Amino acid sequence: MNHPGESKEQTMIGPIGRRAWFALLLASANCSGSGGNDAGHAPATAPASALATSFACFDALAQALRVDAAHAGVTALALAIVDPERVLFCDGVTRSGPLPDDARFRAGSVSKMFTDIAALQLVEEGRLDLDQPITNWLPEFAPQNPFGGRITLRQLMAHRAGLVREPPRGSYFDAAPPSLAETVASLNATKLVDPPGARMKYSNAGLAVVGRVIEVVTGQPFETAVETRVLAPMGMAASRFARLDGDADRLLPGELWSHHLAPFPAPTFPFGIAPAANLEASIADLAEAARRFLRGGRDAGGAPIAAETLAEMWRVQDGAEASDTNPAKRGGGFGFGFWIDEFEGRRRISHDGAVYGFSTLMVLLPDQNLGVVLAASKDCVHPWLERLAAESLRIELARRAGAPSPPVADRGAAPKPSRAFEQRELDRRVARRDATFPPRPPPPSPALVELVGEYGFDFSILYVREEAGTLHTRVEWFFDDALTPAGGGDGDGVWDFPPGSLYEREQLRFVRGGDGFGDGQVSGAFMAGIWFPRRVIEPKAGAPFRVTPTGPIAPLMAAARAAALPESLRQTGHAADLVDLAKLDAGLRFDIRYATADNFLGAAVYPAARAFLQRPVAQALVRAQRSLAAIGLGLLVHDGYRPWHVTKLFWDATPTEHHEMVADPAQGSRHNRGCAVDLSLCELATGAVVPAPSGYDEFSPRANPWWPGGSAEQRWSREVLRRTLEAEGFTVYPHEWWHFDFSGWEQWPVLDASFTEIDAARAR
Hints:
Layout: E1 51-52, H1 59-71, E2 76-82, E3 86-94, E4 97-98, E5 105-106, H2 111-124, H3 153-157, H4 180-185, H5 204-218, H6 222-231, E6 255-256, E7 264-265, H7 274-277, E8 280-281, H8 283-295, H9 307-313, E9 333-334, E10 339-343, E11 346-355, E12 358-365, E13 370-376, H10 382-401, H11 420-431, H12 446-449, E14 453-457, E15 460-467, E16 470-475, E17 479-482, E18 484-485, E19 494-496, E20 507-514, E21 517-527, E22 530-533, H13 553-562, E23 578-580, E24 589-590, E25 612-614, H14 615-629, E26 633-639, H15 644-653, E27 676-683, H16 712-727, E28 730-733, E29 736-742, H17 755-763
């Protein structure tokens, strides 16, 4: 996956990169770490044909990797630098220690280069032809072709066949992968997006077709053919396209993440597009593959194809004749299995891979006999991998030239691979005391509101949101696109992805009815021909969220009142000084849900609709109210100080699966200290609530302060509230956009005083 604007991988890297980050570097028992001398040595676990060498100039690189590790975490990361004869540097570790010798990374689209080699071997043997119609070998292959012309093997391997990006079945959205034959057969239900050979369109589906041709011609399962014909001859003994019984535990645990979610375990299911994405390889095997490529063709002990065939892999397949012209000057392009461009004036041959929980990158400078391979067990961290690769290349090129080793980039401000990126942006604004707000967007049209929501699967959610009066999507956790109505219509049913999208020249088509939805309700969408069911998020807009309590509220409340507040929670530096917010005469409005049954438990737990905060916290809230008044808005207070016994009631009454939304009484709550406040925005003049992505106290994905869905107006109000409160020393709670904690909250005691007791204390 390696073309600007086309692939999940390449869209994340280099000059066209999008935000993504990685962490944790590692030192492997599998590879030698950076040392302090120039003497070569061969570790016992290195490939038998490689001499592993360590140079002092790599010490700074190794240190930079470890500094990266301090900023964020991946479960494993490895780096290797090679020339044709040696592994110059190799380092790898896991979160829990050294990288096991046989540990495998999912290589993602790096798989494609090995699939293409297998096909080219068959071309050399005269069993395939690059420029004959693919139907010579797959007569049943018949996607709709309104353009005319025949699809060839060359076009498929160079991503110029005009096929869709993903097949309807067997894509990496398909958790129950069909066979390769069934995956390819599903393409007959698709329509070409371009005339064959006309232009580049990155396609995992196309490589699946190449793999199916290999199966048919060799009479072997694809995995068997590529492993015996390519992986074994290239010295990749620890690598597989299909997991064998008993070796699944060699696969490292990968992690997914997004801008608004903390990392979570990645799924491990294989894909029906095996030739495009299913390779699992150790860092030693990937380093050996890079070394073989640098050696040349089979006659030089390199890749198991002829030297002239390898040269064809490294020629941009754009219809032009082979020439000495630097392909980067033509904008770069695909060869077979590689993207060809330049690195600081040198010919650069590369491919990267991104698959659930893993990121890989192989970069070769063939004219300098130099290569770098990186693998990380976190999805979409290619900007950091690209930076490491560039630093590795510069350091080795300088060593060869006898020049001083160039410095590595400053790691001091490296962002974390989580919602911490957006938190850093907020911190930056707060540091400037930025009191300006973007203009308030208009409410979305009802027609768009019907389409906005979440679609898809836990491991890959498609977010559809409204922005600037049109639909926007976020695909595969990171990739944002502004859609346009197909054919210039109202867009109710079909929307086009824009140029530069992963799904350029494909469509999002909504479906109504079925699957438990009414005839007029949107039940899902075909995204680029792949079905994404609508994810039901409760409650429906405007309805209060409810949990089913673990038992009757009255006895749970009695037990909570009888419980003793842990003495350790009373120890603190500040004496309590709670202020009744209603007596501040600051224009605050109130909607204290816990004094009514209109809350998540469906029962009143406060004796009166009152809100208290510690005096400095209340003063900061008043300043926030005055700031908002300048733009005609105000604060609607839902909760402030909460007696400890109510926190215990919430914990005891809430089912375990929702415990992240309530505080653990053993630790005490910021609310118990009078240092947390729950708020919404309201119109200053009328008190009308300003729309937000979710309702108050809603235990759903929409409550996340960085949830990317909803309407522009809803996200604007959430941002204005957060920016205003953070400017006054509050921090938003990661699971609730309405909950803010005051800085220094830990200096106040946990309290269990009733509202009546607070009044009595104030009177005294």
